[in-house]
Amino acid sequence: MSTEAAIADLDQGQPADRKVVVGAEPGSSSVRIAVAYHSGQGHTARQAAAVAAGASAVPGAAADLVSLDELTEETWDRLAAADAIIFGAPTYMGSPSAVFKAFAEASVRVWAADLGWRDKFAAGFTNSKAMAGDKLNSLVDFAVLAAQHGMIWVGLDLYPGWAESTASIEDLNRLGSWLGATAQSDADLSAEKAPPETDLRTAAYLGERVAKITLRHQRGSLAA
After folding, report:
1. Distance from C-alpha of 175 to C-alpha of 138, rounded to nearest angstrom
2. How far apart are the C-alpha atoms of 60 and 34, rounded to whole Å?
3. CB burial class (10 A; 0-12, 13-18, 19+) of residue 95?
4. How would you class 188 by CB atoms within 10 Å of its CB: exposed for 0-12, middle for 13-18, buried for 19 or more?
5. What secondary structure does DSSP assign to the chain, as a single string?
6. Positive or negative CA dihedral for 37, 42, 47, 52?
7. Whose CA is closest to 203, among 16, 48, 1?
8. Which of these, 96, 28, 93, lies nearest to 56 by C-alpha position?
9. Which residues are paired to 18 by β-bridges?
């Protein structure tokens, strides 16, 4: 299934934190991508679902949506089982949400256990109501968290969209971010209407990229 088809199949009526997106073909060598996120009003949950859809559209990859609203043993087990973790949260007052920050601090238990996430791939995404909104600061927080855990960061390999007079707001990476995927949601629009499809396609592209790189790494390791 293509990334575009996977996004089209997203169930907009079901909370993303209740869904697990599975994309690995039966009997295939597979990798699991965990999308670990918090969403305040549902907008970032749509972005998370798009990331998962992009990852699961890659043959041999499966994506697991992991809500960080409540940190249970199951939460930590699902992250431990992943080959890559993609972090996501809304940007509030120029940094990730307090719920995500609580998760980041609680992850010291993994760090203390001989860097339990060492060599997993990592990436990040965030959403805010402003076009800029200092979202870069949230992505930097995610990248530093990954670095402290000994993880391998994956950014976007896209030229900036919507950056020329002939360009379109529908371009991928219309907000011009490379450290991770960013989205913008108008404050007066519900999660059913925002963020726009172009930002969801960019999020899906990030998920797809992480899945492909993780699979490539796994296959190289098996061949070594």
Report:
1. 15
2. 14
3. middle
4. exposed
5. --HHHHHHT--TTS-GGG-EE--PPTTS--EEEEEEE--SSSHHHHHHHHHHHHHHTSTTEEEEEEE-SS--HHHHHHHHT-SEEEEEEEEETTEE-HHHHHHHHHTHHHHHTT-TTTT-EEEEEEEESSSSTTHHHHHHHHHHHHHHTT-EE-----PPSS-STT--TTSTTTT--SSSEEEE--TTS-TTT-S-HHHHHHHHHHHHHHHHHHHHHHHHHHH-
6. positive
7. 48
8. 28
9. none
Do the beta carbons of residue 84 and residue 35 sit within 8 Å?
no
In angstroms, rounded to a whole number, what is the distance separating the alpha carbons of residues 179 and 126?
11
Q: Is the dihedral of CA 84, 64, 79, 16 positive or negative?
A: positive
**What is the amino acid identity at position 141?**
D
User: How confident is residue 221, by pLDDT bands cut at 50, 70 and 90?
Assistant: confident
CA distances from 177 to 20, 131, 198, 217 (A): 27, 11, 13, 24
Tens-digit pLDDT profile for residues 174-220: 999 999 999 999 999 999 999 999 999 999 999 999 999 999 999 88
The label of the residue with tokens 């519900």 reads 190
Q: What is the pTM of this model?
A: 0.90
